[in-house]
Design a protein that fits this description.
heterotrimer; A mainly alpha (about 325); B alpha/beta (about 700); C mainly alpha (about 325); A: about 325 residues; mainly alpha; two-stranded antiparallel ribbon; 14 helices; 2 strands; B: about 700 residues; alpha/beta; 8-stranded mixed β-sheet; 7-stranded mixed β-sheet
């Protein structure tokens, strides 16, 4: 298994390198070239000239890429003139907040979705199963911004139970302390995730229940409960680990929009705001970091998969 | 009192258009220490009978009537809780495929321990001890070390041993084994059957052995029940059944076995048609539609299961065989219906062989490593194999799975490229050909696949499938291709309307006919048939074998017939080549190889094949090929068979034996070849 | 040989098959039902599929025929009739903050949702399927290179990729289609590659090789037609996803400039007035998005079931 993990890590490194190349090449696509994009429309020709020279944008592309990578490795992701802050510092502030929001939501989603899927598989075609399936369809189809807005309308505007916006300032700890403002964003993200995962869990359990090893366990005298807990559960969870890795990019996107709806000061909210005002240093730096984080997340999911499935050897 | 007494069991499986009457009034009993064989073709209800006893029916299935008495208690009437206390404790069950029947993510020790946890109040230590004890009993080497292994880390034979251990760990009164050896190689099959037989006598339990293979039953069972279309059609003790079958279906099954026709070389008897649809079973005798003796009475009245003498019952108004024969002493002599010899050579020019394989070598790399997939070893799939096939003959290639026989077939038709060595057809080598000649060569050799269904594109109509080789090679126009498709369908005995249908609308035998038709489309000289009948039931297998010999005669074809089943090869082939772990260990005229083998592996293989003859089975004893097939990644030095050979000496490890000639083109690669005097059926003593 | 080969009768029907198939071959006069007809039949037995189909047909009529029958001004703002609640005279579903009629605007907005959704899904499906089939069939280095490219773009969460692109370009309908397709083709590429890996080892693909057929024939005649179930099912989900992505884009302000109408933009606009209690500005476009996405998900699910029943017959 160690060999498998090492190979998987190297593969991820390769993907990260490719992602960095794509991000880098995108800077060349920026309107008015990278200098104009970084310095903004009010920069003078002399400033642009200086920027191009000092950042090596007059050198051949591979050299430019080298310089760019060198900067990034040294933590220099550029400077946002619009926010008057270095991109690195911005990320250091925003990334932990996004990770906290996503981790709590995914955890809650798994805790609810797994038993829900098992229940549906065992009581398939019952009223309960149909109800959950219909709800899952609706939540799955509902864009996160709409779900967020509806939750705000009901629980904040009407009932006044929770805050409509997330806590704004402070570090992760301070934000967690104001938990009331986190409930709606977490609920939004978790509900949408539950919709996907419970459907997969249901079909995964159902498929495993038809496997021959279940028949063997029954032939040994095992009851339904034991078959489910001892035999089926682990086998059914294996594809869920893969699913978690595969759906991470879309979860990140969902989190970004949720952040935007609740003004939660995370990566996605900042990214969307700055993309709207074409603050390219932030947009590119964030895209790179988010991609790397996604790659790492998928890697962790794959390692979980390898740990769950003894058949994966290398 | 019998241990198990099944009375008028009826099992139904609900389907969209009604219910399949999978088991329809079956009664039988098993005594303590007795081994009852249940035989029948696929779909006859034998597995459903076994599952009904344990109440493990698939969803939609239910026991509609009858009683299943285990020591006087009716299993069919028990509550779910009560039946759970029977399963795994009083009745153990072993299934067909040990890979899928074991939980892939749980260590085998914990799986074997499961019945103990459920049915006993043993302590953890007692459970552990018992698990190791029972794993030792079933012959798993080093059980204390292996209990933490996962199923995928064991070989197929070892997995089945684990399954048996899991079934026996609570000392059940009855063991039900449902096709326990069908997924295994023939040498491993022998070992597993022996194990079951041995455990039965040591533990004194009753065994129900469900199988499609009459050979598996012959040497082991005390009594046999033959099932057809959800019913038992004949039941008696093994010797009587094989010596004097009374039901026409049983008789027909025997006559369809290629091993019974091998001596004479007659065409096989093939049962026409297919078993009936069990949603709406026909009135009268269910076999009537396929029976050569059926009358109007058979078609309207249901024959009861009864017999002229005690202990031999059959459901037939017009039984075959002898009424008075009380004690059978040999296997039923089969009446042959025609005298065509499937091996009759069409036109053979021995001086000019059609196919010459010379020093063929193929290794597949095994890679490992993290960044660069470096080569850490190689699977030696074919190791210096040479043989020739004359035009018009049938060359049979036999061996266990993984011996390289299929890889050779793929090389012959040009689907693989050899590392070294040559394959010549009519004297020209494939790799030397370019363009038009290469295409011509592709037309000369065709392959028939084992799984006919898998070889036919499910999204294409049969007409397009048959026309595809013509299209690829640009033969003719649309109209002429359509005409050729009709011709081909006629050749293999399918109606023209088949061209408009999809492969899934056909039965297994019909699909193999389509596969044959496609192979014929380009008028090849040589057809490589890779296990073409091993997925088929005996009666259907006979139809395809007959068709193949028919086509050979008509078109002057040459076959390379690849099979694990020596009796099928012996029936069809003029020459037999025996492969072991990438090596051709023996080759020669079919009768010579079969009756006077020189290589100990061939001898062992012949002794291992289950034959549908209880006297021969018992006479030859239990000597087969021992142990498991070694890995082809690092094959044994010298003679590759030495690790399993009873005669192996020090020289066998040091020096690789070359093929040497014996009489009449018979060659074998062995340092200590068996003497010609060793007659078939006699034992080889391991101390020789 | 004196015994003529005896054609067997047709097989016992598969447990799921109808009684018709049990007739011997010779007695069936009609040609076999083509596969797609069987799929259609199973599909129509599924109630959810029919519901989905009805919803889709309804929206097509609503968006494209609706405006011909129901005229409303969607170009000039009219502040005198702004913020009218549903049920107001001549404004059945109310008006928005500049006086556009909600019902009429939903129709116009739906046009771009359906057009862009369908077009983006079609491009993504065709391109992605071919990419995946070629990579999977050829294997080796080609596969490695092609799939690392997919991994790379997959690692950048699609919303960020799309936002990045949308921030660089000035969106038009055509460009939005390309931008959405650019991130959407990765899914089918991965899926079809996986399918191809298993299909290419099938004997019927091997048989083509044996007969001397080329790669083109194998991919186009055998692999893609046999992956069609996966492809069609995925395409349906792709439409739903594309509509969702479009809604997210326009919600975040990356849509086509006004007076162009779209559902996401309407929703985004409505969020400003949640505290005023103008719920209709959110509910109507939200309902439209959820309904159409649920409908396509129903279709996809039913199609998958239909194809799977078909597959079970193998």
């Amino acid at each position: 298994m160690t060999g498998y993990i090492i190979r998987r890590i190297l593969q991820s490194v390769l993907v990260v390198v490719l992602v960095s190349m794509v991000t880098f090449l995108l800077t060349d696509l920026l309107p008015g070239g990278p200098a104009r994009a970084m310095l903004g429309p009010r920069a003078t020709p002399q400033q642009l000239q200086d920027f191009i020279h000092t950042n090596g944008y007059d050198k051949p592309i591979p050299v430019q890429y080298g310089i760019w990578i060198d900067n990034i490795v040294h933590g220099n992701l550029g400077y946002s003139i619009k926010l008057n802050q270095s991109v690195g510092a911005l990320i250091a502030d925003r990334l932990p907040k996004t990770i906290v929001l996503m981790a709590i939501s995914i955890l809650i989603a798994l805790i609810i979705a797994v038993p829900l899927g098992i229940y549906q598989a065992r009581r398939r075609n019952s009223i309960g199963d149909y109800t959950v399936t219909s709800l899952a369809f609706v939540f799955y189809a509902m864009p996160s911004f709409l779900l967020g807005l509806l939750l705000v309308l009901v629980f904040s505007t009407d009932l006044g139970w929770f805050d409509p916006t997330a806590p704004q300032s402070g570090n992760v700890g301070q934000i967690l302390a104001q938990f009331n403002g986190l409930i709606l964003p977490i609920a939004t993200l978790a509900l949408i995730t539950i919709a996907t995962f419970s459907r997969y869990m249901r079909s995964s359990v159902m498929e495993n229940l038809t496997q021959e090893y279940v028949r063997t366990a029954l032939a040994n005298g095992a009851g339904d409960g034991r078959v489910m807990v001892v035999h089926v559960l682990r086998n059914a969870l294996i594809p869920i680990a893969t699913l978690l890795g595969l759906s991470l990019p879309s979860l990140v996107a969902g989190a970004a929009i949720t952040e935007s709806v609740f003004n939660y000061p995370g990566m996605g909210y900042t990214f969307i705001n700055e993309a709207q005002v074409r603050d390219y240093p932030v947009v590119l730096g964030f895209a790179l970091v988010i991609s790397v984080a996604t790659v790492i997340g998928s890697l962790l999911a794959d390692i979980a998969y390898a740990a769950l499935d003894p058949r994966v050897k290398y | 009192m019998p241990i198990l007494d099944v009375q008028d069991l009826r099992t139904e499986i609900a389907v969209s258009n009604g219910a399949v009457h999978a088991v329809d009034g079956v009664s039988f009993s098993v005594d303590r220490g007795e081994l009852l064989g249940v035989v029948g073709e696929s779909g006859c209800g034998k597995t459903m009978t076994a599952l009904s006893i344990m109440r493990l029916l698939p969803s939609g299935g239910r026991i509609a009537g009858g009683r299943v008495l285990l020591g006087g208690e009716d299993l069919a009437a028990m509550s779910d809780k009560e039946i759970r206390k029977v399963r795994g404790k009083r009745i153990g069950m072993v299934f067909q495929d040990p890979m899928t029947s074991l939980n892939p993510t749980i260590q085998i020790g914990r799986q074997v321990a499961e019945p103990l946890k459920l049915h006993t109040d043993y302590s953890a230590q007692q459970i552990n001890d018992r698990v190791i004890e029972v794993l030792e009993l079933v012959g798993l080497p080093q059980p204390a070390k292996r209990i933490n292994a996962y199923p995928h880390e064991l070989s197929g034979g070892m997995r089945q041993r684990v399954m048996i251990a899991r079934a026996l760990v609570c000392d059940p009164e009855l063991l039900i084994a449902d096709e326990p050896t069908t997924a295994l190689d023939v040498t491993i099959q022998q070992q597993i059957l022996e194990l079951i037989d041995d455990l039965r006598s040591r533990l004194g339990m009753a065994v129900i052995l469900v199988t499609h293979d009459l050979g598996v039953i012959a040497g082991r069972a005390d009594r046999v029940a033959v099932m057809y279309a959800g019913r038992i059609v004949e039941v008696t003790d093994t010797n009587r059944l094989f010596g004097n079958p009374r039901h026409p279906y049983t008789e027909a099954l025997f006559e369809a076995l290629p091993e019974n026709a091998a001596e004479t070389g007659d065409n096989l008897y093939s049962i026409p048609g297919l078993p009936p649809d069990l949603v709406t079973p026909p009135t009268g005798c269910r076999f009537a539609a396929r029976c050569r003796y059926a009358t109007d009475q058979c078609r309207s009245e249901d024959p009861p299961l009864r017999g002229d003498i005690a202990g031999h019952d059959y459901a037939c108004f017009f039984p075959v065989g002898d009424q008075e024969m009380q004690v059978a002493t040999q296997t039923h002599q089969i009446r042959r219906h025609d005298t065509g010899d499937p091996r009759a050579r069409v036109e053979i020019d021995e001086t000019k062989p059609l196919l010459q394989v010379e020093h063929l070598v193929k290794t597949f790399p095994v890679t490992a490593g993290v960044v660069l997939r470096r080569r850490v070893g190689s699977v030696s799939a074919i190791a210096d194999v040479s043989f020739t096939v004359a035009a018009g003959e049938t060359f049979g290639l036999v061996g266990e799975s993984g011996c390289g026989k299929t890889t050779i077939g793929r090389h012959i038709v040009g689907m693989e490229t050899a590392d070294s060595g040559t394959i010549r057809i009519d004297g020209t080598e494939f790799t030397a050909l370019r363009g038009k000649e290469k295409r011509q060569r592709q037309r000369d050799t065709q392959l028939i696949f084992q799984d006919a269904y898998a070889s036919l594109d499910p999204r294409m109509r049969v007409g397009s499938i048959l026309a595809e080789p013509l299209t690829i090679h640009g033969v003719g126009d649309r109209a002429s291709r359509a005409k050729r498709v009709n011709e081909l369908l006629g050749e293999v005995g399918l109606p023209r309307s088949a061209a408009d249908r999809y492969p899934h609308e056909f039965s297994g035998g019909q699909r193999q006919r389509i596969g044959l038709a496609r192979a014929l489309a380009l008028q090849p000289k040589l057809i490589v048939a890779d296990e073409p009948v091993s997925a088929l039931d005996v009666s259907i297998q006979a139809q395809i074998l007959n068709l193949m010999s028919d086509l050979r005669a008509r078109h002057g074809l040459t076959y390379v017939f690849i099979s694990h089943d020596l009796s099928v090869v012996r029936y069809l082939a003029n020459t037999i080549g025996v492969m072991y772990l990438g090596k051709l260990v023996e080759v020669g005229p079919a009768e010579a190889v079969y009756n006077r083998p020189h290589h100990p592996y061939t001898r062992g293989l012949i002794d291992t094949i289950p034959v549908a003859d209880p006297w021969a089975s018992k006479a030859r004893g239990d000597d087969g090929v021992r142990g498991e097939l070694p890995s082809a990644v690092n094959p044994p030095s010298g003679c590759r068979f030495r690790t399993r050979c009873p005669f192996a000496q020090e020289i066998c490890a040091r020096e690789e034996p070359q093929l040497r000639s014996f009489e009449g083109g018979h060659r074998a690669a062995c340092h200590f070849p068996l003497e010609v005097g060793t007659a078939a059926g006699s034992r080889i003593s391991a101390s020789a | 040989m004196s015994t003529p080969p005896q054609p067997e009768q047709l097989p016992i029907p598969d447990l799921a098959a109808g009684a018709e198939a049990s007739k011997p071959l010779e007695q069936q006069d009609q040609p076999a039902r083509p596969m797609w007809r069987m799929v259609l039949q199973i599909f129509l037995q599924n109630k959810l599929a029919v519901v989905g189909l009805i919803i889709v047909v309804f929206f097509v009529l609503f968006c494209f025929i609706g405006p011909m029958l129901y005229h409303s001004n969607q170009v000039l703002s009219n502040l005198r009739s702004a913020d009218l609640p549903p049920g107001s005279p001549s404004h059945l579903l109310g008006t928005d903050d500049v006086g556009y009629d909600e019902l009429g605007r939903l129709m116009i907005g739906g046009q771009s949702a359906l057009e862009i959704g369908l077009a983006a899904a079609a491009i993504a499906t065709v391109f992605g399927s071919l990419w995946g089939a070629v990579a999977g069939y050829l294997g080796g280095w080609v596969d490695a290179v092609m799939m690392r490219i997919v991994d790379t773009f997959l690692a950048i969460p699609s919303l960020f990729l799309v936002l990045l692109l949308a921030s660089i370009i000035t969106p038009t309908e055509g460009l939005l289609i390309l931008v959405i397709a650019f991130s959407a083709w990765l899914g089918p590429a991965r899926l079809v590659r996986g399918e191809t890996l298993s299909l290419r080892t099938r004997d019927y693909v091997q048989a083509v090789k044996m007969m001397g057929g080329g790669n083109r024939r194998s991919i186009l005649r055998h692999i893609l037609p046999n992956a069609i179930g996966t492809i069609v099912v995925n395409a349906t989900f792709q439409i739903a996803d594309a509509i969702l992505t479009l809604a997210a884009l326009t919600f975040l302000g990356f849509g086509i400039a006004p007076p162009h109408a779209d559902w996401g933009g309407m929703l985004s606009n409505g969020t400003q007035f949640t505290s005023n209690g103008y719920w209709w500005m959110i509910i109507w476009p939200g309902l439209c998005i959820v309904l159409i996405v649920v409908a396509f998900n129903f279709l996809g699910d039913a199609l998958r079931d239909a194809f799977e029943v078909r597959l079970r017959k193998r």
